[in-house]
């Protein structure tokens, strides 16, 4: 009998993760309503969610979902090319295209699926993808899947980007996030747009952490900087500020038509339930409305307060502030211990380690929401000081 335990080595792999302080586990929560999360009789204030505007638990969300369920029921039944495209998906995509200022948009079941479908549909062997070193795993995996040559520039390093552009072969796609998910800082989008235009490359910007949060009507960092019309491919998630789940790619009509024909994570995946599309259309209206502006203004006030607290305890927050404030600690064991101490004092703040960030740069990742109160943020400041 072959010794499969030896071949697969699962126990040894798990032991190895534990030994390196890289072990992760899922912690069940009994209740997560707004910013308070509960497990048994314990309760924490959540500073780890990407629901930046607090829409996930809003009355508007509840009402839109209930309305959608009453109208459309449960699942969609099949992929959109097979079963027919429901009007609710078309309406959502028209609203997204209008919101992002593009001709068209296509929705996917997650932001991760957008990257996996889009990048390999547009570039392949003989082409070149140039990524910022800190790009999200979905962008890296999509680039690998495409078969194109992959080049990486150090985070926001424009000289290196330019040198890579000079020698790139085939179709050239530059890929960056606008607000970086684990560092909370911003890409130098204006300069990147200028470089990619000069070298005839295309640019994909992942605005997962900027839509809803930055720019006029919450349209993202590229709109805030006035370069959105030069971005060729706008990628975003519907799972963060939009408060629900899913992802989108907004671009020209031709690009979207090509994706409908080629993006495998779109073609071979069941369409998201119609009530989600219905509720998301309402969320776009809300995010781009006066009420959206008020929520953003509250969020930025909260971020400002947290930034000041971090400065007071000797930390240096990112210069362009969206809603992510990392506290870089270094060693995974120390960051884990700090996260555990914060948990003991009633705050949910995750420790982010390798392979999500580079070894030796383990950190606490604080995310703010429009829903946090002044006193919750003040309390966080004291707890942080005690935990570090
Ligand atoms: C969260 C995230 C995604 C993936 O979006 P999901 O909808 O959660 O799958 C993609 N890019 C970045 C930068 C993200 O932070």
Automatic annotation (TrEMBL):
Its cofactor is pyridoxal 5'-phosphate. Keywords: Pyridoxal phosphate, Transferase. Coiled coil: none annotated. GO terms for molecular function: pyridoxal phosphate binding; transferase activity. Residues 43-380 form the Aminotransferase class I/classII large domain. CDD domains: KBL_like. It holds the Pfam family Aminotran_1_2. Belongs to the class-II pyridoxal-phosphate-dependent aminotransferase family. This is 8-amino-7-oxononanoate synthase. It comes from Prosthecobacter vanneervenii. The lineage of its organism: Bacteria, Pseudomonadati, Verrucomicrobiota, Verrucomicrobiia, Verrucomicrobiales.
């Amino acid at each position: 009998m072959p010794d499969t335990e030896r071949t697969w080595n699962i126990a040894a792999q798990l032991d190895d993760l534990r030994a390196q302080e890289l072990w992760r586990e899922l912690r069940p929560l009994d209740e997560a309503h707004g910013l308070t999360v509960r497990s048994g009789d314990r309760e924490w204030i959540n500073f780890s969610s990407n629901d930046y505007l607090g829409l996930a638990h809003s009355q508007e969300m509840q009402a839109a979902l209930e309305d959608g369920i009453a109208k459309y029921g449960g699942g969609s039944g099949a992929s959109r090319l097979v079963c027919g495209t429901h009007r609710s998906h078309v309406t959502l995509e028209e609203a997204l295209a209008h919101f992002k200022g593009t001709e068209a948009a296509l929705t996917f079941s997650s932001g991760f699926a957008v990257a996996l479908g889009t990048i390999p549909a547009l570039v392949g062997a003989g082409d070149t993808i140039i990524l910022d070193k800190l790009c999200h795993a979905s962008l890296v995996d999509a680039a690998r899947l495409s078969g194109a040559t992959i080049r990486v520039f150090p985070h926001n390093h424009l000289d290196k980007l330019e040198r890579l552009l000079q020698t790139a072969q085939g179709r050239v796609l530059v890929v960056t996030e606008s607000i970086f998910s684990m560092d909370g800082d911003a890409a130098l989008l204006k300069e990147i747009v200028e470089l990619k235009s000069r070298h005839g490359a295309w640019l994909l910007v992942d605005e997962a952490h900027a839509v809803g949060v930055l720019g006029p009507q919450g349209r993202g960092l590229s709109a805030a900087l006035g370069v959105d019309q030069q971005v060729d491919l706008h990628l975003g998630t519907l799972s963060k500020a939009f408060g629900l789940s899913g992802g989108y790619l907004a671009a020209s009509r031709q690009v979207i038509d090509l994706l409908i024909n080629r993006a495998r994570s779109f073609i071979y995946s069941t369409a998201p339930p119609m009530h989600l599309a219905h509720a998301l259309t309402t969320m776009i209206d809300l995010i781009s409305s006066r009420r959206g502006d008020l929520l953003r203004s509250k969020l930025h006030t909260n971020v400002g307060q947290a930034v000041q607290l971090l400065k007071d305890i000797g930390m240096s927050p990112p210069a362009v502030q969206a809603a992510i404030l990392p506290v870089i600690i270094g060693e995974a064991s120390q960051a884990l211990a700090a996260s555990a101490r914060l948990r003991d004092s009633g705050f949910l703040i995750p420790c982010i380690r390798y392979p999500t960030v580079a070894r030796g740069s383990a950190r606490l990742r604080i995310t703010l929401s429009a829903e946090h109160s002044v006193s919750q943020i003040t309390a966080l400041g004291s707890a942080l000081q005690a935990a570090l």
